[in-house]
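Chapter summary example: a protein plus pyridoxal-5'-phosphate.
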Amino acid sequence: MRYISTRGQAPVRDFAGVLLAGLAEDGGLYVPETWPLWSRADWRALRGLPYAELAFRVLQPFVGTAIPSTTLQKLCHETYAGFGHPAVVPLVQLDTSIWAQELFHGPTLAFKDLALQLIGRLFDHVLTARGERVTIIGATSGDTGSAAIEACAGRACVDIVILHPAGRTSEVQRRQMTTVTAANVSNLAVDGTFDDCQDLVKAMFADVAFRAEMRLSAVNSINWARIAAQIPYYVAGALALGGPESEIAFAVPTGNFGNVLAAWCARRMGLPIARLTAAANRNDIIARFLAGNDMSVRPVEPSLSPSMDIQVSSNFERLLFELADRDPAVTRHAMEAFRATGKMPVSDVAWKRATAVLHGFSLDDAGTTAEIRRLHSQCGYLADPHTAIGIAAARTLACHHGVPTIAMATAHPAKFPDAIEQAVGIRPPLPPRLADLYERPERFTRVPRDLAAIEASVRATVLRNAA
Ligand SMILES: *Cc1c(COP(=O)(O)O)cnc(C)c1O
């Protein structure tokens, strides 16, 4: 399988190449040159497989010959053996036609583990084969850092350095990062805000000499491998509820548009998906686009679902490319205009194509709290704020279409104890395998908001581990 850039001016690469490259050189995102198209018999053949085996078979055509099949299979099995539920992505029925698919049984209790746990292993495999090492750098406001750290901890060919704003993450979030004591993990607590951390990371990437010396890399959500690794759970959910013979709908809590894009990819491969709903909090750019072709940036507002506090959904570019009949010039022009003016020009034809499949939905904090309360009292289910928005979206969708609807449960309620307590008066406990999180020793380095000091700290970590 070969991959091309949505902007048409970057080298064509194989799966291993796009895994390591992340963003394409022309600023575009990598997409498969052609989509695998599966028949009903192909989907049926996956029914009843353990999740790890299903994931391997769904990913195989995307990986192609870049990684030997037996290796990919072994890595998938290792990855999902580390999850805290035998079904890996279990379905919980909430209502006659609504299910939650729990994607939070990984090590950091959020859906990003499903892709990142595999990606850490894929990085290690590809780098070992090439005799290379990289340093993954990232900034986090709390949530995504821990999933990246858990994905890279203990990997032979990777160092990871994550910057977080000192004293400005929740205790659960900080401890999920700082209690990982593998030698290749470095947590830097920066005297500053999340934006300062992000600026410092950007400055390190912009420092060409430093970037080359440290072989800087990233595992952010524009990496194609992350999208690919999110396709299998849509397949598992659809097959469990009668697919491919009957249709299914999904409601997906949405920020960077990665998770819902993976569902779109499953549909593009021929999985019978009737409807997809992109569910947002009050940062509703995608919902406004789907409602009336208004893709215009507004200031980001903080909400109870911080992982969705996003106004520029970077993975949307991949959908745009498909809506524009895969025309890289149209995509490039739309993205450049979006960057320059804050408003994305999308043709009426492309918008209609999007709305034939995708619905938008948005819910403010009061609505989210009310939904958490309703789910608790009526279904006995504790949903985190992101998940609650997805379930609320599924309810509106299920009413209209009468097909079974699966809402993606993207975080464990114990990750957002304050929001849950505020809604229902209960502080959800951590699952047993994390119950001692508050007793585990922490390790982090306090650093000033200063590029030279931080680069020195990164260099010290990398040199120590290379020795
Ligand atoms: C990252 C995240 C999301 C948003 O997913 P995207 O792929 O960015 O759309 C939703 N919920 C939770 C809990 C997350 O961590």
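Key point: The CA atoms of residues 205 and 211 lie 6 Å apart.
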